[in-house]
Amino acid sequence: PRAARAHGSGRVAAIRRMQRLRQRGYLFDEALRDGMLDPAISDAALEGYAPRHQALLAQAGVNSSAFEATTTEKAVFYRLCAGLGLPTPELYAIVTRSAAGWGVGGRVLDGPRAFADLLVGLPRDLVVKPSGGGKGIGVRVFRREDDALVDAGDGTRISPEALWHQLRGDSEYDAHVVQ
Fold first, then answer.
1. CA-CA distance, 41 to 23, in Å (whole number)?
2. DSSP letters of 41-72?
3. Tens digits of residue pLDDT in 76-94
């Protein structure tokens, strides 16, 4: 019933879809959370996805556990890719919970005013996301308007200084990246 309610489909369709996904290794909660039970997604499109545990097993065969921070923390990974000349979204800032952050051009972000000053020179549209997050959880898109940032998701306005405090106060993630 949860899947049918979440996607507005019938119970039988949701059960059949879950049976096919279960054969591929998906657990119900994962399939529901990731939207795999949405009938608008064709079975052919689902073939391009793998359950998280299978993806992690495949990554383990390629990425040594010694490089876990390098491959799972965007703040580290993006800087490494830039140093190697590999294309990634442009990294403008890293805001950490307990230390000064980093800003493009080697700027030290040691407080909300430094963060606000940095944002003035950046493009109008910005993406802020947890460095160690995944699957789009915690991603926020902002547009700079005057002295405020407008959240594209819900239209709320926030000052750069207040965003700085929110990011530093996030108890779930140690760092966030601004792109």
1. 18
2. S-HHHHTT---HHHHHHHHHHHS-GGGHHHHH
3. 888 888 889 999 889 999 9
Report H helices in 43-173. 43-46, 52-62, 68-72, 74-83, 112-120, 160-168
State how far the alpha carbon of 37 is from the alpha carbons of 11, 16, 48, in Å: 11, 9, 15
- What would the pLDDT profile of 102-113 be if each residue is shown by its tens digit? 999 999 999 999
- The secondary structure element, H or E, covering residue 176 is strand 175-178
Distance of CA 145 to the CA centre of its chain: 23
What is the token pair recorded at 99? 């230390």
Neighbour count for residue 152 (Cβ, 10 Å):
13
Residue 118 predicted with pLDDT over 90: yes
For residue range 27-44, list pLDDT tens digits in order: 888 888 888 888 888 888
